[in-house]
Amino acid sequence: MHFTGLLLPAVLLAGGACVAQAQTDTLRTTTLDTLEVTANRSRVTLPLPEVHGTYLLAGRRSEVIRLADIDADIAQKNPRQLLARIPGLFVYDMDGTGNQLNVATRGLDPHRSWEMNLRQNGIITNSDMYGYPASHYSPPTESIERIELVRGTASLQYGAQFGGMLNYVTKQADTTRHLGFETVNSIGSFGTRSTYNALGGRVGRLTYYGYAYWRHSDGYRDNSRSDAQAQLVRLQYQVNPRMGLTAEVGRSRYVYQIPGPLTDSMFRANPRQATRGRNFFNPAIWVPSLRLDWQLTPQTRLQWVTSAVLGDRNSVQIDAFATVTDLPDPTGQYRPRQVDIDNFNSYTSEARLLQQFTIDGLAGTLVAGVQWMHNDLHRRQLGKGTTGTDFDLSLTTPFARDLWYHTRNGAAFVEGQLRVGRLTLSPGVRVEQGDTQLRGSISYYDAAELPTTIRHRFALLGLNGQYRLNDRMRLYGGWSQAYRPVLFKDIIPTSVYEQIDKNLRDATGYNAELGLETHWSGGHLNISLFELLYRNRMGTLVLMDGNNQPYTLRTNIGDSRNQGIEVLLEGQLASWKGGSLSGFTSTSFLDARYTNARVSVNGENVSVNGNRVESAPQITSRNGLTLRYRTASLTVQYSYVGMTYADALNTPVPSANGAKGPVPAYGLLDLNATWRVGPHLTLRGSLNNLTNESYFTKRPTFYPGPGVWSSDGRNVMLSVGYRL
């Protein structure tokens, strides 16, 4: 925000004078004339500060989206609107709007955002960082105040994820009152209805906040009903002015009926049809945490967080191509379904110490930290379920796979931030050491061949910097190494003919970026070049055994290199008394290709060097115009996503079962409006996919089934929020 002239200092001084007068003379009242403050809200994407809590972020690209400042479909958690101002953001709309966010940047895989270090209020929420780092925890967007994204060049401080850190910051209690209340209630197309209710306040040194949420939707497609609920309780106790304790526990759970994949001909005939009526998906996750925040001295801050991710990922389904029907036999009986259950027990303890210092007149900041993880993932798959039609995890025969994935990993990091005039340099190092052990049984696999241990031994380096040309313009850039652990799904043999490479290596590589950011009265520009090198990608190859017989090996198949440019330009186009017109464009150009890579096809190993990486569009562009008048605003947004491929071979013609082939480019038009009727009442309305485009964003190779998955057509959502 900016204020004309000295209006803001005048308001603050006048307010201070009133407080001082009230303290000295309680019988005298001072009445101020009404002052009208004009603010510019056209720039809604701010970078994080150079020192953010105990994180050092100078020289990085970061974005902060405050949900109260944008017009978006918050009730359905629409990521192309919520995160529209993040250039290059790729979205999977694969399981119905409103359940979870599936996003990635810079050409990475967006499946449940698992290439990112996911956090809520700084607490890790990835289900298992080493076994299955997907996001199964799904809080309601109504509970979120802002979304923070830091790119991968800061990964030495929070982890080693290529995609960066995505942090959802929840709303806080109103500490000026003992009891505050907020409710947001929504209704919309496809039978969607939801309610969010929160209480919070402060009593003495104790601040409390909690919410309860429920949502139902019949879904855009047939057989795509979902029921979701979520809760959170947070207690903060201020021990003294310098020390605070926070205990928090969040929970989310939903049951989603999976409508099944389609072939291309099915999609063209009717994108709303379903090939399954008995498939269900059910994640139920708890995230408890305890935080100590201690300002030891004015220059020293300690933060220690211990947390866990506990819960289940359950599914019951007929897992087959779209061309395989799921119909009853002549006696009216269905065939048994497949039951899969994952149990997560992931524990993290993370301590961070920030120290500000001065050396020979040069100011600097140092952050050092340690992180310990103990994860225990129990995966049971290929259980023979019932022949019923409802959500039922009962078994008629045991699981064919009963596996454990144990990980113990320790990490330590140090990063500094030294300011020399207008130049800031941030070198850092992160050291990780641990191992992951695969144990258990597979009915079709030799037990002696199954035990696998993957060791994590890394010393990761990084260097970032920025130069401030003036108070409103900076050049920034950096380079930082990263790695991605071998995941559970990467090493499970799918048949007796497949083997696991005992020398598997974690994916390694680096992020690099160089950018320019500037802002002016009513405007903001951030443009960056980036490169992401991803070595040791996982896949399968065909090899010969000692008897010259072929077999497939799950192993590292090669590398990929993602390069591109990201541009965010936003600003005010016109203004008049009580109103304004602003706009933005968030555009990315990406070239993501395989290098030194090969894959197995029909019993042969085929080079894919130069082929485009799956789900990495060359062009992604989101553009919007916002009209504001007094307390009302209307935003029209157009989103364009270029064509992508579903497989490393870049298959140009869709297969008959829909599992391979291109994913066509698409463009979508959305309308969103907000009216703040008064200090307590807010109305929101959304008209999504205005032109009712039929489109899809992926052809999965695994869950929820290979084939075409239709995204939502035109739909309407209305929300009423009341805050007391």
Description:
The chain has 724 residues and is mostly beta strands. 5% of the residues lie in helices and 55% in strands. It has five helices and 37 strands. The strands form six sheets. The chain has a 22-stranded antiparallel beta barrel. A hairpin with a 4-residue loop joins strand 35 and strand 36. It is globular, with a radius of gyration of 26 Å.
Please provide a brief summary of the model:
With 724 residues, this protein is mostly beta strands. It contains 5 helices and 37 strands.
Q: What descriptive keywords fit this protein?
A:
22-stranded antiparallel barrel, mainly beta, 5% helix, disordered N terminus, 37 strands, six-stranded mixed β-sheet
Show the helix and strand layout.
Elements: H1 7-24, E1 45-46, E2 51-52, E3 55-56, E4 62-66, H2 79-82, E5 90-91, E6 103-104, E7 117-120, E8 123-124, E9 144-150, H3 155-158, E10 165-170, E11 180-188, E12 192-203, E13 206-217, E14 226-240, E15 243-258, H4 264-269, E16 279-297, E17 300-317, E18 338-359, E19 362-384, E20 401-420, E21 423-442, E22 452-470, E23 473-484, H5 488-491, E24 498-500, E25 507-520, E26 523-544, E27 550-576, E28 579-595, E29 598-601, E30 604-607, E31 619-629, E32 632-641, E33 644-645, E34 662-663, E35 666-676, E36 681-688, E37 715-723
Parallel strand pairs: 7-10, 24-27
Antiparallel strand pairs: 1-4, 2-3, 4-9, 5-6, 7-8, 9-10, 11-12, 11-37, 12-13, 13-14, 14-15, 15-16, 16-17, 17-18, 18-19, 19-20, 20-21, 21-22, 22-23, 23-25, 25-26, 26-27, 27-28, 28-31, 29-30, 31-32, 32-35, 33-34, 35-36, 36-37
